[in-house]
Amino acid sequence: QSALTQPASVSESPGQSITISCTGSSSDVGGDNYVSWYQQHPGKAPKLMIYDVSKRPSGVSNRFSGSKSANTASLTISGLQAEDEADYYCSSDISSSTGLFGGGTKLTVL
Amino acid sequence: EVQLVESGGGLVQPGRSLRLSCAASGFTFDDYAMHWVRQAPGKGLEWVLGISWNSGAIGYADSVKGRFTISRDNAKKSLYLQMNSLRPEDTALYYCAKGLSSTYYYYAFDIWGQGTMVTVSS
Questions:
Q1: A36 touches chain B (CB under 8 A)
Q2: Which of B78, B67, B75, B85 is nearest to B17 (CA)?
Q3: What is the pLDDT of residues B4-26, one digit of tens each?
């Protein structure tokens, strides 16, 4: 069960937009519309930011959006703020039987 | 307040066993699937096990199959993780997480505990 592929790190300036990719296969990301994204600040528990590819839980800023094309899901953060600096993880499932996370992406807000 | 509180972590020798607990409050526990997710020091997240609302379906990661068991007591609003034959590579912060669905095979987790650390070392 290899982790989904995410860039190790990304960086951008405040106010700009950034997109983090999450690449899998037809057995996981491409197999259904159950991709989720989590934000994790250092020393803190993960926080659900996006589920079902593009849905936002109550309370999550609309600066966060999700999409998917074939076997690659994406998280876009617009109007970057200093507090967005964190690790981001995507997740999916393998044919509904096993959960799977991406390796994580460290976002630096310059 | 919606909350998950894990307990039971600690230092354990390879080959030994440990049982983690997770106490839930602030939501209808028996309406939702529950999961254990772990994070090795400095590493990413790894889904470990999930259990459906009524314990009728359980899923395991290959890395723990045959060694770890998940269970729940809806009357006590509690989730458990029995870890046997522990290995050094099981060293991690173990999170209890609430699923968005009643079935474990829907892997979106909206409530997380703060985690309990398990260290496997001689």
A1: yes
A2: B85
A3: 999 999 999 999 999 999 999 99
CB contact under 8 A, B112 and A3: no
Quote the strand ranges of A1-110, DSSP E: 9-12, 18-23, 36-40, 47-50, 64-69, 72-77, 86-94, 98-101, 105-109
Cβ–Cβ pairs < 8 A, chains A and B? 68
pLDDT value at residue B103:
87
Length reported for chain A? 110
Give the whole-angstrom CA distance, residue B73 versus residue A49.
29
Minimal C-alpha gap between A19 and chain B (Å): 19
Q: Minimal CA–CA distance to A59: which of B111, B99, B98, B5? A: B111
DSSP secondary structure string, B9-33? -EEE-TT--EEEEEEEESS-GGGS-
Looking at residue A3, what is its pLDDT? 84
* Candidates A38, A44, A49, A56, partner chain B, best to mutate (most B CBs within 10 A): A38
| CB contact set of B61 (below 8 Å; sequence gap of 6+) | A1, A98, A99, B46, B47, B48, B49
Question: A51, A73 in Cβ contact below 8 A?
Answer: no
Segments of chain A with pLDDT less than 50: none
Give the position of tokens 């999916």. Answer: A92
Which residue in the set A45, A52, A99 is minimally distant from B47, CB to CB? Answer: A99
